[in-house]
Amino acid sequence: MRLITGLSNPTIKYLRSLRDKKHRRREGRFLAEGLRLLTDARETGHLPDMLVMAEGRDPHPLLDTLIEAVEAANGDVIEVSEAALSKITGKDNPQAVCGVFAEFDTGLDRIDRSSAPLFLVAQAMRDPGNLGTMLRTADAVGAGGLILVDDCADPFSVEAVRASMGAVFTVPLAQARWDEFQGWLRSGEGQLVAASLREPHDYREAPYVAPCFVMVGNESRGLPEEYEVECDLRVTIPMLGRADSLNASIAGAVLAYEALAKLR
Amino acid sequence: MRLITGLSNPTIKYLRSLRDKKHRRREGRFLAEGLRLLTDARETGHLPDMLVMAEGRDPHPLLDTLIEAVEAANGDVIEVSEAALSKITGKDNPQAVCGVFAEFDTGLDRIDRSSAPLFLVAQAMRDPGNLGTMLRTADAVGAGGLILVDDCADPFSVEAVRASMGAVFTVPLAQARWDEFQGWLRSGEGQLVAASLREPHDYREAPYVAPCFVMVGNESRGLPEEYEVECDLRVTIPMLGRADSLNASIAGAVLAYEALAKLR
């Protein structure tokens, strides 16, 4: 373990730069925060290259386990001031530990359509909180993966990793353009389902079939019409109020839990 | 209409101060952004005291309607620079218009338990985005209201109003301490339902009864045990992955849509 003092140290600058997508891409690294999340990562075989904790933190046996594991794997274990940790994580009240992880491969070959009855698909989802929440929901419904289609928020952003509550480490994740996803999907079995107002089935009565790919679109614009017509099943969720749409991650969860109940 | 130039003008400072809860409370005013949201507000009988728009905005007939309505009600219509509007809303890319509204009364007498089969309850929900999303979901399921119990995020914060997508104007909203809510709830009909691991029913098979109050707890801690035991019905949502919880607003939506399907 080594101690780094001062806010302008190159390591602190490197860590802080990982809050920025451009730097994450260049380094192939991302940040995850919090003892619980880092413990989940460790238990699923993901150790950080670098483990960073605040001086004056409370001792914790799980943190000791984590330190031992990172040191045994020749990782870097670093103590910094609370101010430096705040600067790294961008939070006023930083969780007392964060780690730097190698980004995963997110090719479509990460997804095994025989591994689960249900998969989630997000198209042009721009909010990292929504994207992380989709990952968390994907874990909860036992989905075989989350596929990010077109220009989505970065799943390795601090906000997405935080909202995923560790699911970024446990849920297979793929990124693809629509054409690429379509080619992959149609090369095997798979029912593509989306919420729609176009000849829709009531989502409670619809004929879901495994492997079922539940897709939601962009937060403002929804799915493009030409994507919607490519779906095998279009369903409608009741909207009894003034608004005509749900939050995208809410719509995804309501559909995913309905499909799960029918497919289990 | 009047034009305000410069970032240090007192009106700009006043508007910016409304991003802060303390100032909102003192002034009894809150900010809402975006032409669509302000149009929804107008159509449901809520006009801003003050309407603020960027110079150099694109013209829009709905904006003209809004300006006429605010001026007819002796409201203040103001043009500012794009930089000033960014400063007010805290967004880099501000929507071209925002309004200042009087905060509503949020007493429990705002809730009419005979008005709908379903109501949502959030306990100690700290994230304004989750809270706004709960409002949006409450609108979608036709809930008779959202009741905020104990120390929740401010429903009049810019983030909550934004996430509500206008539902802050359409869904009856109440704020109460737990004891006060309990007293009110037990003075009439009402089934209190929460997700729980304590003698739970499967949420798909549970006996929901109108008026049904679906409650979710704090994002990190869930519901206090002593609140859970006061519930009339405890249900379980399948969790097939590593995690043992969903995002609070997701859990609320999954339960609310299930209860709605059974109670419609």
Automatic annotation (TrEMBL), chains A, B:
Q: Which GO terms describe its cellular component?
A: cytoplasm
UniProt entry keywords in alphabetical sequence: Methyltransferase, Transferase
Q: One GO MF term, please?
A: RNA binding
Record domain RNA 2-O ribose methyltransferase substrate binding: where: 31-107
Instruction: Name one matching Pfam family.
Output: SpoU_methylase
Per the similarity annotation, which family is this? Belongs to the class IV-like SAM-binding methyltransferase superfamily. RNA methyltransferase TrmH family.
Q: Matching PANTHER family, A to Z?
A: RRNA METHYLTRANSFERASE 3, RRNA METHYLTRANSFERASE 3, MITOCHONDRIAL
Please give the name of this protein: RNA methyltransferase
Whose protein is this, by species?
Croceicoccus pelagius
